[in-house]
Amino acid sequence: MADLEPGVIRKLDEVVVNRIAAGEIIQRPANALKELLENSLDAQSSHIQVQVKQGGLKLLQIQDNGTGIRKDDLGIVCERFTTSKLSKFEDLTHIATFGFRGEALASISHVAHLSIQTKTAKERCGYKATYADGKLQGQPKPCAGNQGTIISIEDLFYNMPQRRQALRSPADEFQKLSEVLARYAVHNPRVGFTLRKQGEAQPSIRTPIDSSRSENIRIIYGAAISKELLEFSHRDEVFKFEAECLVTQVNYSAKKSQMLLFINNRLVESTSLKAALESVYSTYLPRGQHPFIYMSLTLPAQNVDVNVHPTKHEVHFLYQDEIVERLKEQLEARLLGSNSTRTFYKQLRLPGAPDLDETQPGDKTQRVYPKELVRTDASEQKLEKFFTSLVKSDSGVSSTSSEGAPPLPEESFRQTAARKSREVRLSSVLDMRQRVERNCSVQLRGIIKNLVYVGCVDERRALFQYETHLYLCNTRAFSEELFYQRLLYEFQNCPEISLNPPLSVQELIMLALESEAAGWTPEDGPKKELAESAVEILQQKAPIMREYFSLRISDEGLLESLPVLVSQHQPNVAHLPVYLLRLATEVDWEEEARCFKTFCRETARFYSQLELQSGPMSGHPRWIMEHVLFPAFKKYLLPPPRLKEQIYELTNLPTLYKVFERC
């Protein structure tokens, strides 16, 4: 066997090293354009023009009207690690500009023919210089020109034929150039951008100076996106970030996903953030359809590591998972009410065309099996058909109890018109609303929004279907959360239920003390004294309850009205005495935020109590559950994660089919 000799380790020639490094940073014309656009923006340009030939491979020229480059700096501007942004390593921790490593121009000069023409405000004329392999060729030559810089890149990758052959066609490369410039044009609306193919009269992209982001989106991406834009911003003091967003509402969708993400003004990508935001839209958009998202995040510079990728298209930052979750919650809260412009289209059947046989799938490759069929028609027969007892009417004829009819209001309850809407400015209430929106479970909201009601089991439980799953839910827990949220969002604007005649508060509280629910013991003192003390508290706080919650107690101690929280719903009067007693004893009347929260919780607990009584009115609570509560769940409820414990999956169609197949 011949002796195996180890290879000799040699130091590569500096030119080879620089070309290898250049290939990592400048992978295609779009990378060069991104680097040079950032340099132009750093130079405080207000107008940037880009001219392209053969997708940027033959010519890529960027002209701006920024500060320019000083003549004395032209000698080293294309050498590696030369920059005006840094002087020591510690400067990396608080850098606020785009470029900082001094490699963009150096890398380009190693793989293309590079020339720079520039003029500053203080110099009487401009200067033009050419570069090769990072070195100035000759001396800068004086020339005429306006303030700013023109950088011309010709014959990109002329000395790297393998890299050039690996690139796509000029048309594809021009498309990537367009995408990069379009994203910077949206993010920087005060700067005018122009992209033009050499030899063509009309530019491919042109945005005006001092425009707006929404206007630039309309110019570049079209009116279909711009008219559906939803704008919002968020500032988080916990994780120290700010977000500015322009996203499409749920009426818009496209097959191609488009997300423009800037972190500290740097165009980057984030797979985790993109997946999280699109998961929110999956509740609203058809499968395979995607939204348009523009997002700009501002983080403390010391929390961001921008030097993790040669092309700088990725960044790492502190609290990434937590920030992604906060942004996801904010987007879900905004989209919940953004479907006001939603439209649906119906295809008309041509005259004489045969009816479609719905039993035959139109596309054999997309056949829906029976186990995957979803019941969506809420008018189909429900569970009540098998449980509703026959009730004898006055005429002696048997009939079902008030099925499908609205509930009969009790004689003493009469709803009045709603107040004129008033704006809520109390910070405590606004904070409580924001807390509800932040805590909303996106997954559970998607289930509730698309459920199909099946039937009522008892006053606490009901069945509903979501897709191919059958669920049992605790309706009292859901109702309590619903009424709590309605009190917050109808604060100061609740309609009233007038009580005619008014009821004595002291008599009601005495009834409550006589009940087991009050838990009265002799050690608590005489019931009459306790009742008088409770009435005194409620009369003292009557102005608060009247002003904010439409609950009226007169100076004579008479209960005159209660708030309407959901249309067609009235609370169970049997629980009214205990409710008033708990208002006097359980509500924290001293501190504003605690007062509103405990009052809303006690009221929500009172309103959520239904009883399926026997007799002629037995259909009333069931009607309320189907036609009032469940539609209100779908429309209003922002469920917190804890409500997941109140839903139980009983079965699903695929499982049932497996059981039947074994029979």
Automatic annotation (TrEMBL):
SUPFAM superfamilies: ATPase domain of HSP90 chaperone/DNA topoisomerase II/histidine kinase (SSF55874), Ribosomal protein S5 domain 2-like (SSF54211). Keywords: DNA damage, DNA repair, Nucleus. GO terms for cellular component: MutLalpha complex. It is found in: Nucleus. Pfam families: DNA_mis_repair, HATPase_c_3, Mlh1_C. The keyword DNA repair applies. SMART domains: DNA_mis_repair (SM01340). Residues 394-419 are annotated as: Disordered. It comes from the Eukaryota. GO terms for molecular function: ATP binding; ATP hydrolysis activity; ATP-dependent DNA damage sensor activity; mismatched DNA binding. One of its GO terms (biological process) is mismatch repair. InterPro entries: DNA_mismatch_repair_CS, DNA_mismatch_S5_2-like, HATPase_C_sf, Mlh1_C, MutL/Mlh/PMS, MutL/Mlh/Pms-like, Ribosomal_Su5_D2-typ_SF, Ribsml_uS5_D2-typ_fold_subgr. Residues 217-336 form the DNA mismatch repair protein S5 domain. Belongs to the DNA mismatch repair MutL/HexB family. This is DNA mismatch repair protein S5 domain-containing protein. It comes from Drosophila ananassae (Fruit fly).
